[in-house]
Design goal:
Blueprint: H1 3-9, H2 13-25, E1 36-41, E2 44-50, H3 60-63, E3 67-76, E4 79-88, H4 94-100, H5 104-107, E5 111-116, H6 120-127, E6 133-138, H7 144-153, E7 157-160
Parallel strand pairs: 5-6, 6-7
Antiparallel strand pairs: 1-2, 1-5, 3-4
InterPro entries: APOBEC/CMP_deaminase_Zn-bd (IPR016192), CMP_dCMP_dom (IPR002125), Cytidine_deaminase-like (IPR016193), dCMP_deaminase (IPR016473), dCMP_deaminase-rel (IPR015517), Deoxycytidylate_deaminase_dom (IPR035105)
Protein name: Deoxycytidylate deaminase
Cofactor: Zn(2+)
Length: about 180
């Protein structure tokens, strides 16, 4: 096989690191969504994390989801609209776990690859973490506008991989 053919088969860095994030997500035991995140400095992998209950605590598969409902007023044009959000409060998000289990010095100037666009809380935490870029695959429309605005204010690049296909063995059948 020629060197040219090998190079054509080789994955680009975004695909490579997002594949790893999806494989990390397979560790999640959340019945609603499996999320994985990866911390990268240059081309060096520095940490991985997934969403789930705190270590040693019963997870959602064992004890059920702890769903809370929140209501938020959003301005659509000149019309105020009430948006209902449901979220599980048993779960620590993948991005939060990544920040808990990596060092600040490693995060300075780094990129986070995450299977899903960060929620508002995770975006706030990432904005203070020292990272300079967030790359995600699946959108999270409930917080999208706020998250993109925050990242622009913080001069953190955030981008979606739109033509990406997760590895077949990492695709899970969970609710969104």
């Amino acid at each position: 096989m020629s060197t040219h053919n090998i190079e054509q088969q080789r994955k680009d860095w975004d695909t490579y690191f997002m594949d790893i994030a999806y494989m990390v997500a397979t560790r999640s035991r959340c019945p609603r969504r499996h999320v994985g995140s990866v911390l990268v400095q240059g081309k060096k992998l520095l940490g991985t994390a997934y969403n789930g209950a705190p270590m040693g605590a019963k997870d959602c598969l064992e004890a059920g989801c702890m769903i809370t409902e929140e209501f938020e007023i959003q301005l659509v044009g000149s019309q105020e609209t009430v948006v209902k959000k449901q979220r599980c409060i048993r779960t620590i998000h993948a991005e939060q776990n990544l920040l808990l289990f990596t060092d600040r010095a490693d995060r300075e100037g780094a990129t986070v690859y995450v299977t899903d666009q960060p929620c508002w809380t995770c975006a706030n935490m990432l904005a203070n973490s020292g990272i300079v870029e967030i790359v995600f695959h699946r959108s999270y429309s409930k917080d999208s506008e706020k998250v993109f605005s925050l990242m622009e204010q913080q001069q953190i690049t955030i981008r979606q991989l739109t033509n990406y296909e997760p590895p077949e063995q990492a695709v899970t059948d969970v609710n969104s």
